[in-house]
Amino acid sequence: MALPQHVPVQVFPQDFAWGAATAAYQIEGGWNMDGKGPSIWDTFCHAKGRVFENHSGDVACNSYQLWDEDLKCIKQLGLTHYRLSFSWSRLLPDGTTSFVNPKGVQYYNKVINDLISNAVTPMVTLNHFDLPQALQDVGGWKSPQIADFFDNYARFCFKTFGDRVKLWLTINEPIIYAKLGYEKGLFAPGLKELGTSVYLVAHNMLRAHAKAWHSYDAHFRHEQKGKVSIALNSDWAEPLDPSLPGDVAATKRYMNFELDWFTCPLFGTGDYPESMKCRIEAQNRELGFTGGERLPKFSEDEPKPLGTADFFALNYYTSRKVKEMTSCSSEVSLAGDLGAERVMDPSWPVSGVSWLAVVPEGLRKLLKYIKETCNNPAVYITENGFSQVGPVELEDSDRCQFYQDTLLEVSKAVSKDGVNVRGYFAWSLLDNFEWSDGFSVRFGLFHVDFCSTECKRTMYRSGKEYKAIIQRHGTNIKVESGKGSK
Ligand code: GAL
Asked: What is the DSSP letter of 383?
């Protein structure tokens, strides 16, 4: 009988961040309270027919009014770090600094101060999908001006909260925002402008990020001594049939169009990967596309993206098997440019939502890939989690196993592959509004009763498991025998 694997000694650095993450629109509610302006997610949900059973984040976990309850959860888990996002339009109702909402400032000041007085380090995301509607009305992330609006907002936040917040993320997951919001129409603002806007939106997000990083560097870093990065989401990809050169090449493209799209400008050449440029140009020629350049160029006259990540912020959820795409379409699209199909490996268990194959060893491989392709950066895993759908199980043993397996893989990335992992943030502290899936999908370490006005929070068994892992600083993580990577 194989013995269970253990992590006997401490491999995580002494100051390792043990965290959990949330995002404003997913937990806060109070969508129009105390002077908050609307965001594109308010508009999207109120339009009906967009989200599972027309759920919305109008109330969500009501964290705007129940922050004290969230703080109790954070303390119960023994977290050292908490990742939250600011609602841009709660602070600046029309998205610009022409009017600051004092109640918004007061709310986030309380959250930050409470965290710090409880020895919990805040990590703040400035924009987690919820762009102020007023800025959408003037072109949103497609408008070149958005980079300046974002930079002004970022400077305002650095100035107001940067004496206490030392870990900043500018933008959450540009790829998901651009792809689901502008290519697939599943997220706000709900557009399907195939093969064009996705590149423009991602480009403007990178420009905005770079501007804000340079602002911090020039005006705040010296005094505040914090760090600024951008949260990038990536799957890990492997060829469906490693003996087929077409599948191997498609897998490489998959990583190019998933992660390298952002890491090349930030950590590599300062520009988009050559392979992406070539594919897009080839598709333009093949399909006779004459609508102008689809992949924008970085201007020489603007702050450069290269070197603008003080650490690597990685959101990882799943892995894919990839094969060469055989069908071709008549119009340009992101999928056509990619020319690869993703396939679920039937041996990978699926957690709750259909897209989430549970592959903890994919995280270790991705961490190694990042070490090798991004010059060995310090890495925070800023999101990773496991969802439940259907009847709620407070005794969520599958999720307990998931956290054990995953953290064992992370520990191997540290001890065996030498990846400089500095922290891990579970997604999520609470069950919350899971975007187009509404409240039907639950990722929390705490169950939230959305039917009661108190939105009662109850710790899942996985919360207890995570708490125990934190208490042991990641030592003695057990996995079922035979599982996991060597
Ligand atoms: C991420 C997103 C989170 C959360 C998570 C689970 O893409 O940043 O807000 O929803 O996925 O699906």
From this structure: E
